[in-house]
Amino acid sequence: METQFTYEDYQTTAQWLLSHTKHRPQVAVICGSGLGGLTNQLTQAQSFDYSEIPNFPRSTVPGHAGRLVFGFLNGKACVMMQGRFHMYEGYPLWKVTFPVRVFHLLGVDTLVVTNAAGGLNSSFEAGDIMLIRDHINLPGFSGQNPLIGPNDERFGVRFPAMSDAYDRDMRQKAHVAWKQMGEKRELQEGTYVMLAGPNFETVAECRLLQKLGADAVGMSTVPEVIIARHCGLRVFGFSLITNKVITDYESLEKANHEEVLEAGRQAAQKLEKFVSILMAGIPQSGCAS
User: Which Pfam families match (predicted)?
Assistant: First the structure.
C-alpha cells in the first residue's frame, strides 16, 4: 500500500519546476481527452515530460501526451497539463490530483478544467461545449474522495464547501466570449457527473444519470476540482460533448474512445480560440470566494 504524499513531497516537485523554468504561472489548464492541442497556442513554451518531474504519475491513455507545458496565452502566464490521470488507470485519487496542489504551490490562483464527455441532456449535440455549473461526485458516494485521510491545514480546511465550486463570474464571461466568436450553436451549461470508468455506461445507467439531473457524463475532473477548491483556487470548467449517450435498447450505436478523440480534433480550433479569449477575462491576481 502506497503512502500518501506529504506537504514536503508537493514542495519538492514545485521547487524542482520553479528551478527549471522562468515561467511563474497564474493559470493552470488541465487538458482532457483529445484537447491537448490547446498547448499549441502557448508562446515562449517550455515543456517537461511527466517522467522528468519528481513524484509525477504517468499518463497511460491515448489522447493524453503526458507533458507539462509552460508559456503565455493571451498575455496570461499558464501551465497546461497535456494529459491527466484517472482512477481507472489504477491511481488512487490523492495521486490523480497531485498536480493541482503543486500548481497551488507554484502560485497558480485559477484552474481551468476541460474534459470530453457524453451528452445526457437530450438537447445537446456532439460538438457542443457545456460550461460546468455543478457536478455530481458519484465515486464519492462510495467513499472515493481525494480528501480522505489526514487533512493538512496548510492546503485547506477539513470540511471545504462545494456549493460554489465553479466560478459564476467566469461562466458569465465565457458566455460573452462565446458570443464574440459568433458560433451557431448555443453555449450550453449544466451538471457534470463523474463515473470511475473505464467502461462506457449501460443504457440503464444513462437513464438513471438523467433522472439524477446530470447533463454530461465522464470519467475525470471532479477530483481535481475538489482539491482545487480545498486549496482556494478559482475554478472554471467545460466539457466537449463528444457523443450523445445511448438510452435506447434498440440502438445499434456504441460509444468508443476513437470518437472522443475525433471530436476533439474537429473542435480543436474552436476550443483554442475560446480558451484564448477567456484568458483575458481572468483577473490578474486573487481567488474567488
Answer: PNP_UDP_1
